[in-house]
Amino acid sequence: MRRILLQILLLLAPLHVASAMEAASPLQRTQEAIGAYLSNLTENATLAERHQGYAVRVFNDTVYPIIDGDMMARRAMGQSYDRASERQKQAFTSAFRAYLSQMWVNLFYSVEAGEIRWQPVEYTDQNTRAVLTAKLGSLWFGTRIRFKLYWSESWRVYDVDIDRKSIVRGTRADFNESLEGHSLARALAAYIKDAPALPLVTLGATDWSPYVASNLPGNGLAASIVTQAFAAVGYRVDYRFQPLRKLNDLAIAGEVDGFVTAWEDQEDDSIILTDPYLANWLVFIKRKDDPFALDGNGKPQERVTPAHYRLGVYRDVNYGPSLDAYLKDFKQHERDYCSQLFRDVASKSLDLAIVDQWVADIELAGKDNVASYLTKVVPPVEMRTVHVSLQKTADNYAEHLAEAFNAGLNIIRKNGTYASTLAKHQYPDE
Question: Is the pLDDT at 13 greater than 90, yes or no?
Fold first, then answer.
């Protein structure tokens, strides 16, 4: 039986080697990745120049897929890898990737594809391993890079030598040195602390489910879009969930850069609004047996007297001057939560509530008793666009962030990320 298995393995081995040779060569695969990286930076030179994280984002999209980052990190961590917890391994790998990304950006800064001179591929181990050498810059004084690759369904990089210095061995030596006299946890904490980090945008947020909420995946649809738009140009986003009044104080103190959601008519001299990233329709909710109705222009019909109606609105929400003017004749009553608005209309504590149409559709599709008593009033009262608001500062950083967000939003609209995010959150078609 063993002899039969051995014969089968011997027969399959050439097939494995053949598949490695028939696939895209190490040279082709590496050249395509680096070419895509350099081409993107050339086409988007202004973004790369003005936003330091953009080149890192492009590296992660174009070059990192041909790198076996897990293998490189495992080898770089050395013997410590086997005694590290899964969380420590993940933390080291993430930090290693950050170091690798920044090293790459620095190495290829101002390099053009035509300035890279490639040498023939050197194959070993029955053509399942390869070494690819490239020279950047001057023929005599440029940087020499050796990519070491292995074959496993495709060619993957497992180490890189820069002027004969291995990234893996260099990292392992530095990490082992940091371990001398210290615990693994302490050495790892120091390694992670010093890792390069993308610039951070801090945005204030109040619960506005399903658009924004701390208990939703991605913090809700709006936050997901904002996070992805900033990420597309190399920024991280952190959300601070607080009541609106508290967030206003934080914005004035400079502890947040702005707010994740704002309507177009809320712009003033202290803030800048980004390009719109969502549309928001507002509708009235009423009891099914209530005669309240709107005309074709979205105004209360002549037989309706707004002053006779108790209207539920969100507490501490700035609806903006146009809607404030529209609603001024109603008797307004504030509520803290959406569920309170629907419940109080159903129980006749309120006559109407003004809510987002998507929220209304979700609530009225429910099977509880409250939903069975209520209906939407058509047409919608108003359609408004949703933006990120950014607090102006003396150094014009708000303008800088607005530029970044607008560019990122354009990127995710073009690459399909925006549409897939709407679908994931089951947002109605625009």
Answer: no
